[in-house]
Design brief:
The protein is about 50% helix and about 5% strand. The protein is an all-alpha fold and about 400 residues long. It has three domains: about 45-130; about 140-220 and about 235-315, no CATH class; about 325-405, Orthogonal Bundle (Cytochrome Bc1 Complex, Chain D, domain 2). It has a two-stranded antiparallel ribbon with strand order 1-2. Strands 3-4 form a two-stranded antiparallel sheet. A two-stranded antiparallel sheet has the order 5-6. A hairpin with a 2-residue loop joins strand 1 (about 65) and strand 2 (about 70). Helix 8 packs across helix 13. The longest helix has about 30 residues, at about 1-30. It is elongated, with a radius of gyration of 26 Å.
């Protein structure tokens, strides 16, 4: 009997051990998989396609504008920068203003735009990146920054200023902030010693100072009209730049070096190119010193690589927000969703069950479903006398986690 019992235990533990080994191998393969195949895990939507949909087939631009480009019937969708989490902010804006949008579409007898999950992802990506377009700086304030920070000691603008370093007038021609940022990165190594020697310290930038400085050095250059539908940079190319230039020191989602800070979606990255230039400039001495001590040379970017890199880093904040299913259950009840769909989203006679079945919810698929069924939901809420629930940006990750969690046994 003891031998039989031992054989039964062996028959149990062999498959268990094999399953454990398979799991370890799967995790190892996932970690070791080349980064180019893993980028899709945290970049969703193509902003260029989103712009084409917004201004083209889906006709959002007839009513809405983005950075002034488009219709004037409804609000400009880039009036504020996205909060954290970025995806949650954009989704809740669409949700909270849904009733007004849908009623206006009905009054105008316009066809209701249909969006599948991929199209929704592309439009959301476009709106997120368009919200980060640089605002015009103040050239007068920029001249004060140029003088106060000591730039005038070495550099000139339009011939006025120091002569020991290049004139900066053409560096950010037509307000090209990415060219300015690229030049600052590429030349920081040669500037640290002479600047700290001349000024006694490394100047720091805050607020809008960098944007104003760029406006000052470029104000005499011809300004070209910019189109919101043309998003500068490409996230795919930017991921390649990141792997080749930045990944030795920085990581994304745990993949990469540990010398510099993690730059993944959880980190509060600068939203605009000028803000990024400020952060990079402020930390340049420490960054270069760490690299030198570790035998890592400072990166040099060429052509459009800075624009691509910044687009990639911006896209990381568009990552799916995480949340708690327990908090999501409370939010589901407090926001009024349970009134129609049941306390555990099991469904009632007033609304269908919402628990994920074959495919888990993502923020994008949830938003696409809300958009598709929104008009009917509004009608039903009015029939029942139920107010339209208002969501917060931080609710979205919790709600998605709650809807994806297995239904509790009754």
């Amino acid at each position: 009997m003891e031998i039989l019992r031992g054989r039964k235990q062996l028959l149990f533990w062999i498959p268990a051990a094999l399953a454990a080994v398979a799991l370890v191998v799967a995790v190892y393969v996932q970690i070791r998989r080349p980064p180019t195949t893993r980028r899709a895990l945290y970049i969703v939507g193509v902003p260029e396609r989103g712009a084409e949909l917004f201004y083209g087939d889906k006709q959002c631009g007839i009513c809405h504008s983005v950075n002034g480009s488009g219709g004037r019937v409804a609000p400009d969708l880039s009036g504020k920068h996205p909060g954290t989490p970025a995806m949650g902010w954009i989704v809740t804006v669409l949700w909270n203003h849904g009733p007004g949008m849908w009623r206006q579409i009905r009054r105008k007898n316009k066809p209701y735009p249909q969006l599948n999950a991929q199209e929704m992802a592309d439009i959301l990506a476009f709106l997120y990146q368009a919200s980060n377009v640089e605002r015009d700086g103040d050239p007068s304030a920029g001249q004060r920054v140029f003088n106060d920070k000591g730039c005038v000691r070495c550099h000139s603008v339009g011939g006025a200023g120091g002569k020991t370093a290049p004139d900066l007038s053409g560096l950010a021609a037509a307000g090209d902030t990415t060219a300015w940022t690229r030049a600052m990165l590429n030349h920081a190594g040669s500037m640290v010693a002479p600047i700290t020697s001349t000024l006694g310290q490394w100047p720091q930038f805050s607020g809008s100072e960098m944007n104003d400085l760029i406006a000052y050095v470029s104000h005499s250059a011809p300004q070209s009209a910019t189109s919101t539908s043309q998003i500068p940079g490409n996230a795919d190319r930017g991921w390649t730049v990141f792997q080749g230039r930045c990944m030795q020191c920085h990581s994304v989602r745990g993949q990469g070096g540990a010398l510099g800070p993690e730059l993944g979606p959880e980190r509060d990255l600068p939203l605009t190119t000028a803000q990024f230039a400020s952060v990079m400039w402020n930390h340049a001495p420490a960054m270069l010193k760490q690299g030198l001590e570790s035998g890592i040379s400072a990166p040099q970017l060429q052509g459009n690589e800075m624009a691509d890199l910044l687009t990639f880093l911006a896209s990381l904040r568009y990552f799916e927000p995480t949340g708690s299913p327990l908090v999501g259950e409370r939010v589901f009840s407090e926001r009024g969703c349970a009134a129609c769909h049941g306390s555990t989203a099991e469904g009632t006679q007033n609304g269908p069950a919402l628990k994920a079945s074959a495919e888990a919810y993502t923020t994008v698929s949830l938003t696409a479903d809300l958009w598709r069924h929104g008009p009917r939901m509004i009608d039903r809420a009015e029939e029942l006398g139920i107010p339209w629930p208002t969501l917060k940006a931080t609710d979205v990750g919790d709600l998605v986690s709650f809807l994806n969690a297995p239904a509790r046994p009754k």
